[in-house]
From TrEMBL:
Keywords: Signal. This is Gamma-glutamyltransferase family protein. It comes from the Bacteria. The keyword Signal applies. Pfam families: G_glu_transpept. Residues 1-17 form the signal peptide. InterPro entries: GGT-like_enzyme, GGT_lsub, GGT_ssub_C, Ntn_hydrolases_N.
């Protein structure tokens, strides 16, 4: 049955009425989906107590951090929220920043080509505690005490899952380098297996103490007559300016980190206006260019110049077209995206213009892969001259043709031999986190892709808080990306990218996925699965996708060659038919195959005809949802 299902997916004219491995979720009052069953249960608990989707999403986020679902409390939070009162989508930027002393010269003096992958020098300031407090204070209805109750129960002890327990065991050699991590994670020191066993009650006393302090600060403020919002911000201040901050900084610096008390006190979450584009009547929203999110918007703009449906789902022609559109969008991401709060200003108006996308679409060769696809020139679409012509020339791009009919095509082959093994490369490409999706009958909708502080994590002192590893997404060399060079107080350009779509002014789809540089690749195809091919939200979340490796890795090794694009490298599902494989190879692709070609996608589709929610949760991983 499984082989028949995937073979059918390559036929253009069939109806997507396929049996999925997981059933779709249905609800009329609320929906809660995230990366762990216990965390989804935490969201349902909050809904059952009368909380809204913001309350529930904060509870799920707190739970996943406590369960080390490839993230922790010291990581970062990126969110989109639909506010039914204003009927607008807002963006929450709770990404931490580079600490004092984090300069290219500092890392180069240590022989590094990028900031490190692990340890205290990989850490940006923690963003998730502030993100939770901000979202809850501004848009939630409940107290921090109520919302953190499930996470605090988990910190007091929960039966750890095999996935996390085994991840601790695999990373124990690194964990032993950090004294506070060793004390928390290696519950059987000196034994053959030093990590917890699956099902063992895993206790985190230090983290519970930290969360207790935050709740105490809130409750003391309430007892002093402060409002719900003011009390939540009192908890925020204790984390970023009080005794929690003191211990976090002490523990980080003791282990060689750079974060200072001023770094914590000066950081704050930011509410932003998201970027958007319209694809066939659907308004798609993404976070700004400090994430990779606009890449999906660029790809949609390019792809609307093609009749994708007539090509047939996952036909060779369809795969080729998607691959080429993603490569052009990633080339722009890799050179032009960065922290919008630091100069220079990114040319986003040009990058997201329909005219620019039409020009980029015209550059696609339909007969074979363009191994030398490079960044385009969006500046003329803003009425400006590109200030980076000389830099692009230094990289070997031919910019003499000012009409830019092909984009900045390299004058010589810039492909580099990747030094990472295939296993290490895939780990860097797919490196996962989690996602949180929530919606309620009042109209609140939340999509979050949090991350940071994943295992093996370096814990900051007695806080129980694992530090972020997001510094590795910076570059030290402006020739790679002049907008994303590390600097104190600056946000790295991250892969984290929640998504939301509206149709006729009403929520239509809320969706997110884990998986590093594959996130927007998978989300793009997931969206097209529904828009172009009429799949249900569960069918689309399970459907076979493709991955391009023709991009600069945002995470991974220290060698430039480790992160360099692998031109023509294409990941396909293992059930791809032979005739599709043959045609793609003839077009210059190097193929690899996996049973999993998509990270765990979580999504909510809004069925306005029937007044209900449809939930989708991928058949890969532990992701789980509950609706009512």
């Amino acid at each position: 049955m499984k082989k028949i299902f995937f073979a059918a997916l390559f036929i253009s004219s069939f109806s997507f009425a396929q049996q999925t491995q997981k059933p779709p979720l249905h609800g009329k009052n609320w929906m809660a989906i995230t990366g762990k069953p216990l965390a989804a249960t935490a969201g349902s608990m909050i809904f059952q107590k009368g909380g809204n989707a913001v309350d529930a999403s904060c509870a799920m986020l707190a739970a996943t951090c406590t369960m080390w679902d490839v993230l922790s409390w010291g990581g970062e939070t990126q969110a989109l929220i639909y506010n039914p009162k204003t009927k607008k989508v807002i963006a929450i930027n709770a990404m931490g920043v580079a600490p004092t002393g984090a300069t290219p010269e500092f890392f180069k003096s240590k022989g590094m080509n990028f900031p490190p992958q692990y340890g205290p020098l990989a850490a940006t300031t923690p963003g998730t505690p502030g993100g939770i407090c901000y979202m809850l204070a501004e848009y939630g209805t409940m107290s921090l005490k109520e919302v953190l109750a499930p996470a605090m129960d988990l910190a007091a002890g929960y039966p750890i899952e095999a996935q996390t327990a085994n991840s601790i065991e695999r990373g124990k050699d690194q964990i032993k380098q950090w004294p506070y991590s060793k004390q928390v994670f290696l519950t059987h020191p000196g034994e053959k297996r030093e990590a917890p066993e699956a099902g063992e009650i895993f206790v985190q006393k230090d983290l519970l103490n930290t969360l207790t302090k935050m709740v105490e600060a809130e409750q003391n403020a309430l007892n002093a007559g402060k409002s719900r919002k003011e009390a939540i911000y009192a908890a925020y201040d204790r984390f970023y300016k009080g005794d929690i901050a003191d211990e976090f900084v002490r523990g980080a610096q003791e282990q060689g980190g750079l974060i200072t008390k001023a770094d914590l006190a000066n950081w704050k979450p930011i509410e932003e206006e998201p970027l958007q584009t319209n694809y066939k009547g659907i308004d798609v929203y993404k976070l700004k260019q400090w994430t990779q999110g606009p890449m999906l918007l660029q790809a949609l703009n390019i792809l609307e110049n093609f009749d994708l449906k007539s090509m047939g789902y996952n036909s060779a022609r369809y795969i080729h077209t998607i691959y080429q559109a993603m490569n052009l969008s990633f080339a722009d991401r890799d050179f032009y995206y960065g922290d919008s709060y630091f100069p220079p200003e990114e040319p986003m108006k040009g990058l997201l213009s329909k005219a620019y996308a039409k020009q980029r679409a015209a550059q696609i060769r339909m007969d074979r892969n363009d191994a030398n696809a490079g960044p385009g020139d969006p500046y003329p679409f803003e009425g400006k001259t590109n200030p980076y012509i000389s830099l692009l020339k230094s990289r070997g791009y031919d910019v003499k043709d000012t009409s830019n009919k092909r984009g900045f095509a390299p004058t010589h082959d810039q492909r580099q031999t990747a030094m990472l093994t295939d296993a290490a490369y895939k780990e860097a490409l797919w490196l996962g986190t989690t996602s949180v999706e929530a919606a309620d009958k009042e109209g609140w909708v939340v999509s979050i892709t949090p991350s940071g502080g994943w295992l093996p994590a370096c814990i900051a002192g007695r806080t129980g808080v694992g530090m972020s590893q997001r510094m590795q997404s910076f570059v030290l060399d402006s020739t790679i990306n002049p907008f994303n060079v590390v600097a104190p107080g600056k946000r790295p350009r991250v892969t984290l990218t929640p998504s939301m779509a509206l149709k006729d002014g009403k929520p239509w789809l809320s969706f997110a996925v884990q998986g590093g540089d594959t996130q927007d690749q998978n989300l793009l195809q997931f969206l097209l699965n529904m828009v172009e091919f009429g799949m249900t939200v569960q069918e689309a979340s399970e459907a076979a996708n493709i991955n391009t490796n023709q991009l600069w890795l945002s995470l991974g090794g220290n060698k430039t060659s480790d992160r360099a694009p692998r031109a023509g490298n294409l990941l396909l599902h293992s059930n791809t038919p032979d005739w599709v494989r043959k045609e793609l190879r003839s077009m210059g692709y190097t193929l690899s195959f996996e049973d999993r070609t998509s990270g765990p996608i979580n999504a909510i589709w809004f069925d306005w005809k029937h007044g209900s929610f449809w939930g989708g949760s991928s058949n890969h991983g532990e992701d789980y949802g509950i609706g009512w």
